[in-house]
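Propose amino acids for all 204 sites.
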Protein backbone atom coordinates (compact mmCIF):
# COMPACT_ATOMS: atom_id res chain seq x y z
CA UNK A 1 0.00 0.00 0.00
CA UNK A 2 1.22 3.52 -0.79
CA UNK A 3 1.78 6.12 1.93
CA UNK A 4 2.88 9.73 1.84
CA UNK A 5 6.03 9.13 3.90
CA UNK A 6 8.17 6.25 5.24
CA UNK A 7 7.09 7.27 8.75
CA UNK A 8 3.40 6.79 7.95
CA UNK A 9 4.16 3.53 6.15
CA UNK A 10 5.89 2.18 9.27
CA UNK A 11 2.98 3.19 11.51
CA UNK A 12 0.45 1.61 9.17
CA UNK A 13 2.45 -1.61 8.98
CA UNK A 14 2.63 -1.79 12.77
CA UNK A 15 -0.94 -0.77 13.62
CA UNK A 16 -3.15 -1.95 10.77
CA UNK A 17 -6.08 -3.93 12.18
CA UNK A 18 -7.79 -4.78 8.88
CA UNK A 19 -6.37 -4.98 5.36
CA UNK A 20 -8.50 -6.22 2.49
CA UNK A 21 -8.59 -6.43 -1.26
CA UNK A 22 -11.12 -4.14 -2.95
CA UNK A 23 -12.19 -3.42 -6.50
CA UNK A 24 -13.06 -5.69 -9.39
CA UNK A 25 -10.72 -8.45 -8.24
CA UNK A 26 -12.64 -9.15 -5.05
CA UNK A 27 -16.04 -8.77 -6.72
CA UNK A 28 -15.05 -11.37 -9.30
CA UNK A 29 -15.62 -9.00 -12.23
CA UNK A 30 -11.98 -8.35 -13.16
CA UNK A 31 -10.94 -8.94 -16.75
CA UNK A 32 -7.47 -10.43 -17.15
CA UNK A 33 -4.97 -7.86 -18.33
CA UNK A 34 -7.26 -4.92 -17.61
CA UNK A 35 -7.16 -4.67 -13.80
CA UNK A 36 -4.58 -4.38 -11.06
CA UNK A 37 -4.91 -5.34 -7.39
CA UNK A 38 -6.50 -2.70 -5.14
CA UNK A 39 -6.25 -2.80 -1.35
CA UNK A 40 -7.57 -0.74 1.57
CA UNK A 41 -6.85 -0.92 5.26
CA UNK A 42 -7.92 0.40 8.65
CA UNK A 43 -5.14 1.62 10.91
CA UNK A 44 -5.27 2.66 14.57
CA UNK A 45 -3.18 5.81 14.88
CA UNK A 46 -0.64 6.17 17.71
CA UNK A 47 -1.71 8.42 20.63
CA UNK A 48 0.38 11.39 19.48
CA UNK A 49 -1.62 11.53 16.24
CA UNK A 50 -4.94 11.60 18.10
CA UNK A 51 -4.41 13.84 21.14
CA UNK A 52 -1.33 15.76 20.00
CA UNK A 53 -0.50 18.05 17.09
CA UNK A 54 0.73 15.31 14.79
CA UNK A 55 -1.40 14.21 11.85
CA UNK A 56 -1.83 10.76 10.35
CA UNK A 57 -3.65 10.07 7.10
CA UNK A 58 -4.55 6.38 7.37
CA UNK A 59 -7.24 5.87 9.55
CA UNK A 60 -9.95 -6.97 11.95
CA UNK A 61 -11.40 -9.60 12.21
CA UNK A 62 -13.56 -8.40 15.10
CA UNK A 63 -14.98 -5.51 13.09
CA UNK A 64 -15.89 -7.82 10.21
CA UNK A 65 -17.59 -10.19 12.65
CA UNK A 66 -19.77 -7.40 14.09
CA UNK A 67 -21.34 -5.53 11.16
CA UNK A 68 -24.14 -4.38 13.45
CA UNK A 69 -21.68 -1.85 14.87
CA UNK A 70 -22.09 0.35 11.80
CA UNK A 71 -24.63 -1.27 9.49
CA UNK A 72 -28.10 0.20 8.97
CA UNK A 73 -30.68 1.03 6.31
CA UNK A 74 -28.78 4.25 5.69
CA UNK A 75 -26.37 2.17 3.62
CA UNK A 76 -29.14 1.89 1.04
CA UNK A 77 -28.95 5.59 0.22
CA UNK A 78 -25.18 5.32 -0.18
CA UNK A 79 -25.55 2.49 -2.67
CA UNK A 80 -28.17 4.45 -4.58
CA UNK A 81 -25.86 7.45 -4.69
CA UNK A 82 -22.94 5.39 -5.97
CA UNK A 83 -25.18 3.67 -8.53
CA UNK A 84 -26.42 7.01 -9.84
CA UNK A 85 -22.86 8.30 -10.04
CA UNK A 86 -21.82 5.36 -12.20
CA UNK A 87 -24.92 5.84 -14.37
CA UNK A 88 -24.01 9.49 -14.88
CA UNK A 89 -20.52 8.47 -15.94
CA UNK A 90 -21.85 5.89 -18.37
CA UNK A 91 -24.28 8.37 -19.92
CA UNK A 92 -21.55 10.96 -20.38
CA UNK A 93 -22.93 13.43 -17.85
CA UNK A 94 -19.42 13.99 -16.56
CA UNK A 95 -16.98 16.24 -18.37
CA UNK A 96 -14.34 13.58 -18.87
CA UNK A 97 -14.11 9.83 -19.25
CA UNK A 98 -11.00 7.79 -18.59
CA UNK A 99 -12.05 5.05 -20.99
CA UNK A 100 -12.79 6.47 -24.47
CA UNK A 101 -11.57 3.17 -25.92
CA UNK A 102 -14.56 1.37 -24.38
CA UNK A 103 -16.97 3.89 -25.86
CA UNK A 104 -15.37 3.41 -29.25
CA UNK A 105 -15.52 -0.38 -28.94
CA UNK A 106 -18.96 -0.90 -27.38
CA UNK A 107 -20.75 2.41 -27.87
CA UNK A 108 -20.78 3.09 -24.12
CA UNK A 109 -18.46 2.81 -21.12
CA UNK A 110 -19.02 -0.83 -20.21
CA UNK A 111 -17.00 -0.55 -16.99
CA UNK A 112 -19.22 2.24 -15.66
CA UNK A 113 -22.21 0.13 -16.69
CA UNK A 114 -20.92 -2.95 -14.88
CA UNK A 115 -20.26 -1.06 -11.65
CA UNK A 116 -23.66 0.63 -11.88
CA UNK A 117 -25.45 -2.72 -11.92
CA UNK A 118 -23.03 -4.32 -9.44
CA UNK A 119 -23.79 -1.65 -6.87
CA UNK A 120 -27.48 -2.35 -7.22
CA UNK A 121 -26.98 -6.10 -6.83
CA UNK A 122 -24.77 -5.76 -3.76
CA UNK A 123 -26.86 -3.03 -2.18
CA UNK A 124 -29.99 -5.16 -2.41
CA UNK A 125 -28.18 -8.15 -0.91
CA UNK A 126 -26.81 -6.04 1.94
CA UNK A 127 -30.18 -4.61 2.87
CA UNK A 128 -31.87 -7.99 2.62
CA UNK A 129 -29.29 -10.08 4.49
CA UNK A 130 -26.87 -7.75 6.27
CA UNK A 131 -24.00 -9.25 4.28
CA UNK A 132 -22.31 -8.95 0.89
CA UNK A 133 -21.13 -12.17 -0.76
CA UNK A 134 -17.70 -11.98 -2.42
CA UNK A 135 -17.13 -12.79 -5.18
CA UNK A 136 -20.60 -11.91 -6.44
CA UNK A 137 -22.62 -15.13 -6.76
CA UNK A 138 -24.12 -16.43 -9.96
CA UNK A 139 -26.09 -15.72 -12.03
CA UNK A 140 -25.19 -12.07 -11.55
CA UNK A 141 -21.44 -12.63 -11.74
CA UNK A 142 -21.55 -14.01 -15.28
CA UNK A 143 -24.03 -11.32 -16.31
CA UNK A 144 -21.78 -8.55 -15.00
CA UNK A 145 -18.66 -9.97 -16.62
CA UNK A 146 -20.53 -10.22 -19.91
CA UNK A 147 -21.71 -6.63 -19.53
CA UNK A 148 -18.18 -5.43 -18.94
CA UNK A 149 -17.15 -7.10 -22.20
CA UNK A 150 -19.98 -5.48 -24.16
CA UNK A 151 -22.14 -8.61 -24.40
CA UNK A 152 -25.15 -6.73 -23.01
CA UNK A 153 -26.42 -3.45 -24.39
CA UNK A 154 -26.50 -0.09 -22.69
CA UNK A 155 -30.30 -0.28 -22.57
CA UNK A 156 -30.15 -3.68 -20.87
CA UNK A 157 -27.74 -2.29 -18.28
CA UNK A 158 -29.96 0.73 -17.63
CA UNK A 159 -33.04 -1.46 -17.28
CA UNK A 160 -31.29 -3.72 -14.76
CA UNK A 161 -30.03 -0.72 -12.79
CA UNK A 162 -33.46 0.91 -12.75
CA UNK A 163 -35.04 -2.26 -11.36
CA UNK A 164 -32.36 -2.66 -8.70
CA UNK A 165 -32.56 1.00 -7.71
CA UNK A 166 -36.32 0.70 -7.24
CA UNK A 167 -35.76 -2.36 -5.04
CA UNK A 168 -33.17 -0.46 -3.00
CA UNK A 169 -35.58 2.42 -2.46
CA UNK A 170 -38.18 -0.03 -1.17
CA UNK A 171 -35.69 -1.79 1.12
CA UNK A 172 -34.68 1.50 2.74
CA UNK A 173 -38.00 1.33 4.58
CA UNK A 174 -38.59 -2.45 4.71
CA UNK A 175 -35.12 -3.92 5.35
CA UNK A 176 -34.65 -5.89 8.59
CA UNK A 177 -31.59 -3.74 9.31
CA UNK A 178 -31.94 -0.99 11.93
CA UNK A 179 -32.99 2.43 10.69
CA UNK A 180 -29.66 3.97 11.72
CA UNK A 181 -26.35 2.78 13.21
CA UNK A 182 -25.98 2.32 16.95
CA UNK A 183 -23.68 5.27 17.69
CA UNK A 184 -23.16 4.28 21.32
CA UNK A 185 -22.07 0.77 20.31
CA UNK A 186 -19.79 2.15 17.59
CA UNK A 187 -18.20 4.65 19.97
CA UNK A 188 -17.63 2.00 22.62
CA UNK A 189 -15.99 -0.37 20.12
CA UNK A 190 -13.80 2.41 18.71
CA UNK A 191 -12.56 3.46 22.16
CA UNK A 192 -11.78 -0.15 23.07
CA UNK A 193 -9.96 -0.71 19.77
CA UNK A 194 -7.65 2.24 20.37
CA UNK A 195 -7.02 1.27 23.98
CA UNK A 196 -6.15 -2.33 23.06
CA UNK A 197 -3.74 -1.30 20.30
CA UNK A 198 -2.07 1.40 22.38
CA UNK A 199 -1.59 -0.89 25.38
CA UNK A 200 -0.37 -3.83 23.29
CA UNK A 201 1.30 -2.52 20.10
CA UNK A 202 0.85 -4.77 17.11
CA UNK A 203 4.11 -6.27 15.88
CA UNK A 204 4.66 -7.86 12.51
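Proposal:
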Amino acid sequence: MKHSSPQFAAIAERSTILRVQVGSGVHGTAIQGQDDRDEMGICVEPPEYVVGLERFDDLGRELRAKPEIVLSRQAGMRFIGYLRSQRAGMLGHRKHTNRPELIEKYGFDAKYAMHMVRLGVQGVELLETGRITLPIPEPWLAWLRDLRQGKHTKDEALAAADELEAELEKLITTSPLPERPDRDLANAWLRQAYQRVWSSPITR
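The chain has two domains: 1-69+182-204, 71-180. The chain has a mean pLDDT of 85.
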